[in-house]
Design brief:
By secondary structure, this protein is α+β, with helices and mostly antiparallel strands. The protein folds into 3 domains: about 90 residues, no CATH class; about 110 residues, Band 7 domain (Tetrahydropterin Synthase, Chain A, 2-Layer Sandwich), CATH 3.30.479; about 60 residues. About 45% of the residues lie in helices and about 20% in strands. It contains 7 helices and 12 strands. Strands 9, 10, 11 and 12 form a 4-stranded antiparallel beta sheet that branches. Helix 1 runs antiparallel to helix 2. The protein is rod-shaped and about 140 Å long.
Length: about 300
């Protein structure tokens, strides 16, 4: 056992409880049989085999006291006068030393849903974040002997890991931010980092993280409106860039096609006028109104 690494779990092999139950029943039946079939001495008194009766009583008590039952995904941590002797994972009716103190431990999956935490992201923006953690006890010795209360340990460590994750990454990407990974757009990568952070903290308590997911992620109410307007502005700018890029490509293609086919010969001034008109038509949010020119540009 390494003190620095914590208590290590020891596998304990118990005996079949059905055999112990059979021995207990035989001992129980033997008690009245020994009493009723006791021999009668010359004075007319029964010679009851006291030692045999006492032995059967003790044997019955020992067998019954040592029996216990384990459900699937349940274990029993066995202690002998304060000394850890091992953990039994055998299901069904089992028997072990009657002097063992048997503490039953569930190793089934458990859920923890954190409250909405208000923290600052990497850029200092206040955000709200919450997560759901699926965990179970992996090392019963550490969970019960090294940690005072597992049920209280999990929420505190889970919220600490969630705060640390939120402080390491920005809520959303910005032009002046070199980090490509964000809480909002990180997806599975953020989930893996959260799971790894939780496992490092839970390892000391003999716990295993099966899954971890963000259940809530949003800007804090005091800046939510401003950040929404910023996101809308960034979306509009991105859309405008795409529209302008497409319009310039279309104008270039139109002018090149007119020149190649010899439809019209344009000097610099007419080319500039056509480019201006085409860009207005392609980039405008409303439909363009056609104007028929009956004269000439040089009249």
């Amino acid at each position: 056992m390494n003190a620095s690494a914590g208590t290590e779990e020891i596998q304990f092999k118990s005996f079949s409880g059905y055999l112990a139950l059979l021995v207990a029943l035989v001992a129980l039946v033997a008690i009245p049989v020994l009493i009723t079939r006791a021999s009668i001495d010359e004075y007319g008194q029964k010679n009851v085999p006291v030692l045999a009766v006492i032995g059967c009583v003790v044997l019955f008590i020992v067998m019954v006291k040592g029996m216990y039952m384990l459900q699937p995904n349940q274990s029993a941590l066995l202690m002998l006068f304060g000394s850890y002797r091992g953990t039994d994972y055998s299901t069904g009716l089992r028997w072990a030393n009657p002097f063992f103190n048997k503490m039953k431990v569930s190793v089934r999956l458990r859920n923890f849903n954190s409250e909405k935490l208000k923290v600052n992201d990497k850029r200092g923006n206040p955000i709200e974040i919450a997560a759901a953690v699926v965990w179970r006890i992996k090392d019963t010795a550490r969970a019960l002997l090294d940690i005072d209360n597992v049920s209280a340990y999990v929420p505190i460590q889970a919220e600490s890991a969630l705060r640390h994750l939120a402080n390491e990454y920005s809520y959303d990407a910005h032009e002046d931010d070199d980090s490509k990974l964000t809480l909002r757009g990180g997806g599975d990568e953020i989930v893996l980092k959260l799971k790894k952070e939780l496992q490092e903290r839970f390892e000391k308590a003999g716990l295993h993280v099966e899954d971890a997911r963000l259940t809530h992620l949003a800007y804090a109410p005091e800046i939510a409106g401003a950040m929404l307007r910023r996101q809308q502005a960034e979306a509009v700018i991105a859309a405008r860039k795409q529209i302008v890029h497409g319009a310039v490509s279309m104008v270039e293609m139109a002018l090149q096609s007119l020149t190649d086919r010899g439809v019209v010969q344009l000097d610099d001034e007419r080319r500039a006028a056509m480019v201006s008109n085409l860009l207005v038509v392609l980039c405008a949010e409303s439909e363009a109104q056609p104007v028929i020119n009956a004269g000439t540009l040089y009249g």
